[in-house]
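Exercise 7 asks you to align residues with tokens for two separate proteins.
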Amino acid sequence: MKKIIFTSMISFIAVSVWAQEITQTVRGRIVDTQSDFPLMGVNVVIAGSSPLIGTSTDEQGYYRLSNVPIGRQTLKISFMGYEEQTVPNIIVTSGKEAILNFKLEEKILLGQEIVITAAPEKTSTNNELTSVSARSFNLEETGRYAGSRNDPARMAANFAGVAANNDDRNDIVIRGNSPSGLLWRLEGINIPNPSHYGSLSATGGPVSMLNYNMLDKSDFLTAAFPAEYGNALAGVFDLQLRSGNNEKREYLGQIGFNGFELGAEGPFTKNSKASYVANYRYSTLGAFQAVGIDFGTGAATPEYQDLTFKVDVPTAKAGRFTLFGIGGFSSIDLLGSEEDLESTDNLYGDENFDNRVNYRTGIVGLSHLYYFNSSTYYKLSLAASRQEDHFRSDSLSIADRTPIPSESADFINNKYSAHLMFNKKFNARNTVSAGTILDLYDFDLLNLRLVPGDERTLRNSEGQSLLTQVYAQWQHRFSDRLTLNMGINYQDFEISGSQSVGPRAGLQYALDKRQTIGVGYGRHSQMQPLESYFIQTTLADGTVLESNRDMEFTHSDHFVLSYNNNLRPDLRLKVETYYQDINNAAVESSPSSFSMLNAGSDFAPVDEDFLVNAGIGRNYGVELTLEKFYSQGYYFLLTTSLYKSEYQGSDGLWRSTAFDGGYIANLLGGKEFKMGRKENTLNIDIRMTTSGGNKITPIDFEQSAALGYEVLLEDQAFSAQLNDYLRADLKISYRINTPKATHEFGVDLQNITNNENEFARTYNPRTNKVQTQYQIGFFPVPQYRLLF
């Protein structure tokens, strides 16, 4: 009897505890948009809460809301003299505190009139100097969109003007530009390609090293970007890492396509505001492969691991210190000798070659932020990075499959970077910032051709070279409706002695509280891929020279016209049209169809010599975005782009670039359902995308058959096109909130229609046929995530 009573009491207590409403803490920091100085006395409330849950910020700009019910909440932020903000659909879970930082913009008063034209927080960027062609994104979007694989680059492919019709790489093609025109920036530092299996000559790869669990709100820019961004032609990923929880220790466990992951964060001591956060990830692709899931590597098993961390140390008088880093290793042996000769599912290797590759990338940085007063601050960031690419290739004899040494490469690039920036807010109307960016390249490049009878050194160079950038920016707010952003960027590259000056300007005008128009202009310049400067050429007299050392910057002038209409608080329409004029592109000195504007879409470096800056190009088009932010339990995003991308090589003929697909269309949507108790939610997200196929050069079959290797019809460069790309993805996830933890189960069903999208058309000397390779078919990606 006593046992029955005791058991009943335990059950009653457990049910009572479970029945209590689960709550969580929401906290963060609020600063001035232009000066980044913390604002004291800002009112922060949970809209619709009863009794009202509210607070105000302290002298350091921090706020704290306790006992906030889990689920989606809306924050209202108000402060006298500043634009009010409403931030809807904040996801509050039981397993992790919601730490949210915001910026408020000061009002400008004209007589007695106050015009409030603040855009929804969803559309605003971290960089307040952007006028057009910019979009912010956060951790939730990166993890929510179907088909994104928790990869920021693949997530950005859903935005207007961005093409990503390659299932096996996350290269970003912006408005017809080469993916090599993209700049990656992390915590204010320009960084190398942050991808596993990402070569020195590329800006993408099959798997991102960027851990989405570590990302804070970040910016993605696609044209006419502010003056602080240099050495880029196409776009910018300006990434921020989030700081760890400085009050409570929290942990994460996750397993999915990107790997098995463990994370931890928290304060160093109970009485300190200093915090750490770190995530480690190890590849699980071997397990996926064992159960028969094909991800394009044939019989080969990719292996990789990475670590991301950030240490944040605020002090009372010395400013704020931040230490951050990313490191990763990746390797794979793509052995044609072990492949099924009838299979075409190896998208990275070749049945006629044994290729062995090994990549290592490491980035570590330290920054110091110091406020001289409430309107002036400086930030100094120092970083070092190392990128290693090691490649070995053996060709396989058609007769007996004997391996024959073909090529080897050992590329090492150490980069030492510094970014010093000063920012001064003079008043509500005028803000000025200026800075210097130094990138010192310390390289060792060795590349040998080993083909018997054709042995030669392609590259053999080591040394140092400095890329210097100096910039200045000014924002003038004529009124709450009209804002002017201006700037100038100067670049100097030591190897070639080339220099460039790039003016930037943007103007935004609010027609009313809902509609805004913007115009933007920017002249942007970029150095050529580092390894392309050191191609060795042997002259008839035996003299060896590096014939590309004098290559200058490629220049691009961006012109953008933008229209934005907030049709409703949760519905936005945006239309942009643009023209991009490119000159000084690297082409061959003798007449040919080659242009560096087509480089960067694969792992191989450019081997052409005697390159000169005589090429031109042009990209133009129109984009439409219709986006419903999450409300009433659902969201959707529709983007369409019509564009043209053309270039001239040294033969003077206008041609399509390799990236001239012509159109892109994406449709995303998602619905959230409350399941049983309100703490649990079922999410269903869909994505449909279609785009024009990449342009390709036809194969000269007769010459290929006669010579035993692929020969292209160069006079018909990029005159053919792969079939249009079409893919549909479905993601189903279920979130369970318990009093101490959050469990998330999900499966991302990619290419649910199993559509056969073309990957490439190549000549196979073994079969003496031109064969078509297809991209990944139906591809399920399960995931489990635990926050506690």
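Second protein for Exercise 7:
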Amino acid sequence: MGRERGIPISDKTAFTPGRHTEKYNQQSLCTGTTDMKKLILLLTISASALAADDMRTPIQIALEFNRWYINQVNNDHYPISEGHEIDKYVTSSTMQKLRHAQDPRYADDEFYEADFFTKSQYIGDDWPQNVSVASYDTDPVCVSVNISFGKKKPHTVIDCMIKENDVWKIQSVVARDNN
């Protein structure tokens, strides 16, 4: 048996080039009719969309918010009344109600004994370093994310997460019995 024409791949097989069936496309620098530049652009846009913030889970956002919020308050910054960074984590209707409640004209009528997001009057000394997700549950109303603060004496709240404009945000917070 003689050797066939082509480039040997192994001792027993040989590659025989096939004939070209399509024209060479100088605009896209490839054979065929697929425009590779458009395909690469489409893949790049798709990858960017997958990495977007709105692709994060409600659990990730609740944890990120609570870590950020505890550190803000612990450093004597009050996000409800200072700036608008909190707006990316909390629904607009909830923020409107919270800002209304802090208005001095209405503060006496709508007094809260504890912080809305921590459901506590203080921040434990180990809270800023120990914010974690204890559990979560999904129902038709919201995704309930149980957030625990501290290790010495854990304190847990439940963030009700809903989608607002395709982004998961906190709608409400309730305290969980920590016995």
